[in-house]
Each structure stands twice: as structure tokens, then as C-alpha cells.
Amino acid sequence: MRKFGLSQFAMLAPAQGMLLLVIALPSLYVFWLSFTESSYGTSPVFVGWENYAAIWNDRYFWRALVNTLVVINIIVYGELVLAFVIALVFVKGVPFRRVLLAMVLTPYAISEVVAIVIWKFMLDPNVGSLAKAMLAVGLPEISWATNPVHGLGLVSVISIWLHLPFTFIIIYSAMLAVPKELYESAIVDGATRWQSFRFITLPGILPAVFVALIFRYIFAFRLFSEVWLLTAGGPARTTEVLSIYLYKQSFTYASFGKGAATGWVMVLVSGVFAAIYLRLLYRRGFQRDA
Amino acid sequence: MPRMDRRQFIGRALAAGTAVATLGRVPPAAAQVRTKLTIISHRVHQQTATDGPAGDVTRAWTDQNNVSLEWVTLDLNAIHDRIFREGGLGSSEVAVDFVLNTRAVPEVMNLFESLEPYLAKAPIEDFDDISQGMVRAFSSKGRRHGVPFRHAVNALHYNEVLLKERGLDRPPQVIEELLDYARRMTYTRADGARVHGWGMQADNYSDVVKLARAWGGDFITEDYKCVADGPGMIKALTLIRTMYSEGLIPKNITAMKQNDVITAMQNGQIATTYFPFGRTVLFNDPKSSKFPGAFKVALPITNKEMLARGEVIATAEFWSMMIPKNSKYKDLGWGLIRELSTKANTIKTAINGNGPIRASAYSDPRLKEKVSYAALESRALKAARVPMPAFNKAAEAKDIFVEEMQAAMLGLQAPEVSARNMTRRIQPLLPRA
User: Fold this and answer.
1) How far, in Å, CA of B268 to CA of B289, rounded?
2) Tens of pLDDT along B231-246?
3) Residues of A in contact with B88 (CB under 8 A)
4) Domain housing B287
5) Does residue B22 sit within a domain?
6) Rounded to whole angstroms, what are the CA distances from B266 to A129, B111, B243, B274, B289?
7) Which end of chain A has a smaller Cβ tally under 10 Å, C or N?
């Protein structure tokens, strides 16, 4: 075993110190804040579990939580399926691979805010080019501004479009890393294409899939700009997600205690999801290699 | 060419850098390094103070004091969030904050300087000429904290070209005829463009409160009673519900921000709407409007009885300039406030599209000549009331109002239910009289 001495600690210290400074300490401060009543121009007053009880009894919190869970599952799994299919097509070989690869990755190069505003303009029911084109070919109108199902549906579509390159690149590179010899052996053994996929491709990329899932779940849980710029949680707060709820509590109502409590609930819920996937990742993937 | 090793390269580079730095150093007197003053405001404040037919009214003062102004302009919620958060820091570069009257609650006043010593040391020109009602709204415990800069009295803006296309010679005047007008003004133009008869800011309360007042109702009284469950508000909610269901209001109105409504007016998608008087400059701007010169203003819609009596319904909100207590540049901040508040500069900013806060401004011949709506605005200002008084939980009350109003407009629940919910949910948030 290698020696782990003072010099190694010293080399690690800056990074660890930075993490402590920008993540651990602010998190502890927010945790303390969640037990206080605090606003602009007033000193925080300790109120115990009052903020947690208030958000527990707030129907808008539960609505936001349900909206968040529904939307992030649509986003994460929709993105996964699409990324999977596109990666398979690329692995099989496509003409103009570099050009097509650049096209698939393009949404990641566009500013999130700009992309959402462009989608909003294109689907404006009064003047939007895409909205008009859809009507012209007989497709139904998307009432994203007034119908919460349509609104959250569009949020999901935009989010998948924006973040697909992330999941795609992870799965595509995992597929490329599967040794070709395995496929050749499978052909020699008389395996069908489905069997090759089921017993070679899938086990080979599963750890990467779990990594993509964990990251996308955590990122998607923070879903904010898509909803804020599109519907701002409306109409009548029906498309609100947890991050919008948190933002309103903290920065619109200046109720920092409730905002902090919401933040910690979000950390706990996303932590539970991450723990489940990490466990699966360990059991299905890394445990075998250990 | 002789080769240079790494040490020689670094040495020469350092020597060259030092020489450039030494030669480039200018004596302090000639440096003219301007002090940077940060101002947090809405875009409209910067625009009316620095741009428009009357030019930049801050130029003379900034040159004289060797100062440059950095305007940080944000949306309504973001402005106040930034201002109050900056106010909580140990010290700040911000010299002047622009704060809206509904946010000037007693709890935040201790983040700002009391202006009494500043007024005693270097008074503002003819301070009594400035609306003292607005000054009182920014006072706490007998101390004044803000100097009014802008009022936003609402007018009815209409597109005269579209009105004429529909054979109408005047905009709606009374609430009883509004629905009929909106129906007649909703049509498809010859070029295929769809026009909606009525537009409103559906993410705010002000427009619907005006409709409710025209029906004899109100939202929150000055003695903090929520009366939104009265017949006036129910009629207003029923009216917007009818207009929405008949397509007289744009379908995506709940997702339209203030700027979206302005763009829709400029493009001719909306024929009539409420906005502060000064916005007519923007609607008629040839650079951004498809109908420059076609937008006119009228007094907000009232009812038959009030019209017969010559009474006016108008809502106004106003902004004041405040000095953060933690500012590093308090004296310069006060200097800028004094400069922007002079009689001459009040007229100039008004010519640039600002709502002047001096009573004398409306009798000024320059304003009468340059601002076509001055007389109308003066009349509206005399009758204007805030759509909602200031209190600590005003932001929550606004959100509840918007939520219930949207639910009624979209047909998610009956207007009576929305009106009842408003009162039930908002009354506990109000201060006890």
C-alpha cells in the first residue's frame, strides 16, 4: 500500500478546503436558516421545525413535488431512450458521421435561456412559426400557456432536447468501449443480433447508463429555467416545480427560512434517488470489477 | 537569430513589462479616473434619465463630479431582491436604489439612510413641490427615506389605425361598453394578422383592479381590508373570463410578460390595453413599432355615472430613490438624487417619458409643448390611487390575486369562488388596522 503522508494531505487540502468553503459551510448555514424565521432587514429568529411543518401543510409544495417527480422521470427516461437509439445508430455506422455528431451535440452549445426563449417564440399560439406550421398540417394546437399538461409536456420536450447530448455522449462512448472481439465471438457462436445486444452491449454499457441516470436525475431535479421562462409556474401555479417554489419562497416572498427548508427537502429527495441508483450501480457494475 | 533560454525569456519579459508599466503610468492629476457609482433600478429609470428627446440629464453632474454611472437594471422582483440583499451586506458600492412604493414596508426602511441630515445639509430645490403623499409613503417613524422620482399613472392606450379599420371613432370610455368594443376590435386584418380587442398584464393585479373599480369594487382598501369578494371584483373577473373564452384576449396571455404585451401592441396584435402614460413614446417608436404615431392615450375606463359626474378612475404606482445605509458613496448618492430632482431635470426626464413627481411640472410650457398627453396625465394623477397599499406580505398577496384571477379567467373555477378565495387567503396577510 502506498504511503499517505503529510505531503499528500497538503496536496489534497486546497481542493478539499474549497469544497468545504463553497459547499459544506453554506449548506450548514442554510440548514441553520431552515430553522429560523428570516427576511430582509430583520435578524433571524429560531422557530424550530415550523418551516418544515409549514411546507408539509402547503398544498402548493405537494403539487410542486408531484410536478417535479413526473417531469423529471419523463425527462430522464425519455432522454435515455432517445440517447440509446441514436447511439446505436451511430455505432452501426452512419454517413457523414462527424457532421451528424456535431448536429446531435449542438443543443448543448446553445445558451439555455436563448434556446428556451426561441422555443417559446416558435410555439407562440398567435404568431409562432412552429405553432402555425403544426396547425397547417392538421396537428392539434399546443396550449402550453393555459393547459398545465401541455405546459409541463413542452417543458419536458425542451429539457430533453437541451440535455440529450449529455446522455448521448456517455452512452455512445460506452458502446464504443465494448470490445469488438466479443461480438465476433458471438457471431461464431451463432448468437442472434438480439442476443448480442442483450448479453454483450447491455451489460457492457450498464455502469455508464447508471452514471448518466444519476447525473441527469440530480440535474433535472433542479429544473428551473425551462419552467420559469416558459410559464413561470402558471397558469394559477399549476406548472410550478420545486425549484420555482423555492425561488418564490426565498426571493419573491423573502421568506428565507421556508426557502432554506425547501432546499433541504430537495437535497433529501434527490439524495434518496441518487442512493438507489448508486446502490444499483455498485451491485450491477463496479462490484463485479472489484 | 540567437536562441534564448527559458530564464532569459522570463527575465526579458519581466523587464519589458516593468518598462511598459513605468512608462504608461500617468500622473494622478491627469489620470481622470472616474468614481464608479452603481445604481440599481428598472430599465425605465435609466432610459428616462439618460436617453430621449431631452438627452442625458445626468451628464453635467457626472462630468462635474468626475463620476461614471453604472446602471444595474432588472425586472420588478429581481430589482428588489438585489436591493434588499445588497442592503444586508457589510458594505456596498451601490449609491442609489430605486424602490417601488409597494415594497417600501417599515421592515426594510432600516436598510436605508434617513434623509433628514442630507436634506438639512444640502436641500433639494423646492422640496415641497414634490408630491408629499409619495414622500410619506417612503417614511417611517417620522423620518423620510426616499425621494420620489417617477410615478406611473395608467392610461388606456389604443391603436387608432385599428380602431378606424373597425369603424370606431373613439376608444371605450365606460365599463358597460368594454365587452362590445373588445368584440368589435377582435378581427383578422387584410394581411392575415389576428388582432385581439383587449390586452392585459395577467401576471399582475393592477389592470383587473382598475376594471373592478370601474364596476364600483376594489381589492384592498387603504385601511387594509380585503374587499375582493364584493360584486365589483366578481363582475371584473366575469368580464375577463368572457373575453378570454371568446378569444378577445390573446390565448397565451398568462405567459405574456410586460415586454411581450408591449411587443404585441407595437405589432398590432392587441388593439387596446392599460399602461402608464409615458409608454406611448415606446409604442410609437418608429424603430420598434409597426404603427408609429398611431397609438393614442385616453383616461382609464370608468362607469356611466362617474363619467357623467366627470370623475376619473386611475391607478398609480411610484418609485423613489433611496441611499443604502451600507453604501460607500452616500454623499455622491445624495448629490445624484438632488440633481435628478431639480425642477429643470424633472421636466427633462418627463420629456424623455418619465412621470413627473412635481406638481408644477404640468404647468410648465416646455412639458405642455413636448408631451401631448400632459394635461390628461395631470388629470389622472389627481384622481390616482395605488392599486394595492404597501404591507409586508404584499408580494404573497399579489401572487394569490394573480393565481385566483387566472383560475377565473381560464374557467378553472367560478369568478365568485376566486373572489371569495382572494379575501379568505389575503385578509390574514394584512396588517391589523
Assistant:
1) 9
2) 999 999 999 999 999 9
3) 40-41
4) 154-315+390-429
5) no
6) 19, 40, 21, 14, 5
7) N
CATH, domain range A36-289: 1.10.3720.10
DSSP letter (8 states) at residue A140: P
Q: Is B251 in the A-facing interface, judged by CB distances under 8 Å?
A: yes
Shortest distance between the Cα of A252 and any Cα of chain B, in A, equals 6
Q: Is residue B68 part of a domain?
A: yes
DSSP state letter for B94: E
> Are B399 and A230 an interchain contact pair (Cβ–Cβ within 8 Å)?
no
B124 exposure class (CB count in 10 Å sphere: 0-12, 13-18, 19+): buried
- pTM, 2 dp: 0.84
Distance CA B143, CA B140 (A): 5
Let me know: does B202 contact B256? Beta carbons within 8 Å.
yes
In DSSP terms, A126 is beta-bridged to none
And the C-alpha cell for B278? 409615458
- Output the nine-digit C-alpha cell for B174: 365606460
- Chain A residue numbers with beta carbons less than 8 Å from the beta carbon of B84 are 40-41, 254
Q: How far apart are CA B218 and CA B231, in angstroms?
A: 9
Contact between chains at A236 and B412 (C-beta distance less than 8 A): yes
- Which of A17, A164, A136, A196 has the alpha carbon at shortest distance from A79? A164
Looking at the structure, tell me whether residues B252 and B348 fall in a common domain.
no
| CA-to-CA separations, B174 to A226, B216, B238, B407, in angstroms, rounded | 40, 12, 16, 25
Segment A74-123, tens digit of pLDDT:
999 999 999 999 999 999 888 999 999 999 999 999 999 999 999 999 99
Q: What is the separation, in whole angstroms, between the first and last Cα of chain B?
A: 89
Q: Are B179 and B242 in contact (CB under 8 A)?
A: yes
ipTM over 0.90: no
How far is Cα B425 from Cα B226, in angstroms, rounded to an integer? 9
Specify the amino acid at residue B56: D
The beta strand positions in B160-244, using DSSP E, are 187-188, 194-195
